[in-house]
# Entry
Amino acid sequence: MKHTIKTKKKNIFIIGAGRLGITLAAVFATKQAQDFKVRYIMSHSDKSLIKAKKIIGKHGEKIIFTKNIAEGIKDCSIIFICTPDDEIKKVCDSISKNAGLNLEGKYFIHFSGSKRLEVLKSAKNSGAHIASIHPMKSFASIEDSIRTIGGTVYGITFEKTHLSRESVETGNLIKNIVDSLGGTAIEVKNEDKALYHAAACVASNYLVSLVDYAVGINEKIGIRPEDSLKGLIGLIESTINNIKKLGTKKALTGPIARGDTGTIKEHLDSFKKNFEKNDYLLYKVLGVATSKIAYKNKWINKKTFEEFNAIFMDN
# Structure
C-alpha cells in the first residue's frame, strides 16, 4: 500500500557492500516499477564490489560500483548506511565533515536494530533528515535473502516533531521504501530500540545457540551432530508452525506443559552424571520460564508450578 507522499524517482546511495547492502541493491534493481532506484554502491573493498556486481548481475548495469563516497552523496537524495553498527556514526561524521558536500534535504537512513538516531546527528546538523529501518530477518546467505525478503517486517524509527511536515514526509518516505521491498513496517520509538533489538537477538541469534546446545547434549551420548540436527530440525519446524497457528503461549508442549515433574527430575539427574553444573544452567533457566507459561495457561496448578521451581532451584 502506497503512503501519501509524492515521490518521484529517487536515487539511492548504498554505503556498505555486505550481505544487507547487496540484498537491498539486488531487490531494488530487479523491481520493474518502483519509486526508488539504486544509483551507487560504495565499499572500500574491491572484493566486496566485485561480489556485489556479480550477484546483482544484468539488473545492475546502471548501478555505479565505487570506492568514492563523495560522488554518491552528490548524486543521490537517499543514503543507506549499511555498515556494521559501530561504523555508522564514523561514516556519517566523515561525510558531514566534508565541506564540499551539501546534505541539505537529503535522507540519511541507517539499518541498525539497536543504534538510535543520534548516530546520524552530524547529518541532521548539516540539514539532512534522519531515520532508521531494521529488517527482522537473518542475512546469513545473500542469495537466499534476496529470494525470501518479501513479507519481512521492518522496525522503523524517525523523528516526530509535533507532526511537522518534515516528520510526516520522512515517515511516509521510509514506509514507501518498506512497501517497495515488499515488507511491512512497525514503528519503534527511538528510546526503545535497544530492547526491540534484544528481542530480535533472542529470537534469531539465541535460537542458533539453543539448537547448538541441544546438539551438544546429544553429542555427549554419542549421537553425531549431523544426525542430531536432522532430527531436531523437524521438531523445530513443527514447533514454529504451531507458534504461527497458536501463538507462543498455546504452542507449548512437553513434560512441563503436562505437569510431569518426574520427567524433569530424570533430566536433571542425567545432567548431573554427564555434565558440569554450569553446562546445564541454561536448561534450568529455560525450565523456570517454561513453567511460568504453563502456569499462565492454567495447564498446571500453583502447587505443580512451585514444585517445578523447587526442582530447578535445588539441582
Notes: The radius of gyration is 24 Å. The chain has a mean pLDDT of 93.
